[in-house]
Amino acid sequence: METSRRELAAMIALGSTGIALSSTSSPAQTGTTLASPALVHHVFFWLKRPGSQKDREQLIAGLRTLRNIPVIRRLEIGVPAGTESRDVVDASYDVSELMFFDNVQDQKTYQEHPVHQQFVKSCEHLWAKVVVYDMATV
Amino acid sequence: METSRRELAAMIALGSTGIALSSTSSPAQTGTTLASPALVHHVFFWLKRPGSQKDREQLIAGLRTLRNIPVIRRLEIGVPAGTESRDVVDASYDVSELMFFDNVQDQKTYQEHPVHQQFVKSCEHLWAKVVVYDMATV
């Protein structure tokens, strides 16, 4: 693999003694940060019947209705990927939703939105466990 | 809050008897899907010294170097957001990285990339626990 000048610079910056705490933004970083919403909401669902393709499809269909909630800047729905199996990788969930919001208030608006509440009402019988991570970008 | 025509359509589609399994894509969904990379890689770090702002900053600085790896389509770095405290929300982690790749092969290339390996070497003494979720978008 060819190593670009920018990659080399990053490797030099890391060096052998640790990482500079005051590293300035690279152009790529600045570009990403400018376009970034401030809040990432990632939810993982474990089904009551993990082997049921029907239940998985129903949950995914329910999650798709959430796209109609205006405060959601981006919505991705997924299932465990076929990446290498490692101790640190949790691939035990069945379905996942990933959302971007502009801020905490918008995430609250989403929680209370009738389309979200209808989704919970229609689908909550399908899942045994839910884990949510809310992350503020830095 | 005003309810738009699209939101109303979604609420009607959900109905009271469940969710249609064969729902077609909304324009918003199609747009998002076309722009979507196929693989989301979300990593959560718990520090050995959770109270250490220095360790947190060092880990974040290390994660920022990963932006120089070309196969990464998008990188977000974050910390627990100030969303409502609920049983399902895990806000115990210290730092998180969220990456988008085009496919599983690109994620493998990233794992083996010298900038990533240098990051692990420089920062792994900081964390006590790592949990990774790899999600293929549907």
Multimer state: homodimer
The CATH class name of the largest domain in chain A reads: Alpha Beta
Q: How many DSSP H or I helices of chain A?
A: 5
| CATH fold-type name of the largest domain in chain A | Alpha-Beta Plaits
| SSE pattern of chain A | HHEHEEHHE
Strand content of chain A: 15-25%
What share of the residues of chain A lie within helices? 25-40%
Radius of gyration of chain A: 19 Å
The shape of chain A is globular
What is the end-to-end distance of chain A?
A: 31 Å
Measured by residues with Cβ under 8 Å of the partner chain's Cβ, the largest interface is: A-B, 78 and 78 residues
Structural class based on helices, strands and sheet pairing of chain A: alpha+beta
